[in-house]
Amino acid sequence: MPPHHAQTFTRPPLVDNPDGATIVRKNFLFAGSDYGGERAAAMYTLIGSAKLNGIDPELYLRTVLAQIADHPISHIQDLLPWNLAPSLQTDSSQAA
């Protein structure tokens, strides 16, 4: 086996977390199933997108979950983090 193959299998793939911690991608193996891993990845994506847009992730998820049932599917893009960011940043600055 060439040396580069051994390094690939012995070194776990790492992802840098903005909070300074390092997450090993193999954590998704413990999600219970492939579907559970996909759901976990979707949640991490939503949380990461909210953080990148300067929104408190908990506030973003609460807002989306409160609105999504009555929201028309043709306008679902209105609930994306970058589209909700202006209203959520205004709401959180008024609450502070």
> Count of DSSP helices?
4
How many beta-strand elements? Answer: 2
Distance between the termini: 59 Å
Order of helices and strands: HEEHHH
Spatial order of strands in the largest sheet = 1-2
Structural class: mainly alpha
State the shape: globular
Rg, alpha carbons: 18 Å
Estimate the helix proportion, in percent.
Answer: 55-70%
Mean pLDDT: 74
Number of domains: 1
Q: What portion of the residues fall into strands of 2 or more residues?
A: 5-15%
Return residue spans where pLDDT drops below 50 for at least 5 consecutive residues. Answer: 1-13
Sheet with most strands: 2 strands, antiparallel
Protein model, in words:
This protein has one domain. The longest helix is centred in the middle third of the chain and has 19 residues, at 34-52. It has a two-stranded antiparallel sheet. Strand 1 and strand 2 form a beta hairpin. The radius of gyration is 18 Å and the shape is globular. It is mainly alpha-helical and 96 residues long. The chain has helices spanning 3-10, 34-52, 57-67, 81-95, and strands at residues 14-16, 22-24. Helix 2 (34-52) packs across helix 3.
Feature tags:
single chain; 96 residues; mainly alpha; two-stranded antiparallel ribbon; 2 strands; 55% helix
Provide a concise account of the structure shown.
The chain has helices at 3-10, 34-52, 57-67, 81-95; strands spanning 14-16, 22-24. By secondary structure, it is mainly α. The protein has one domain (3-95).
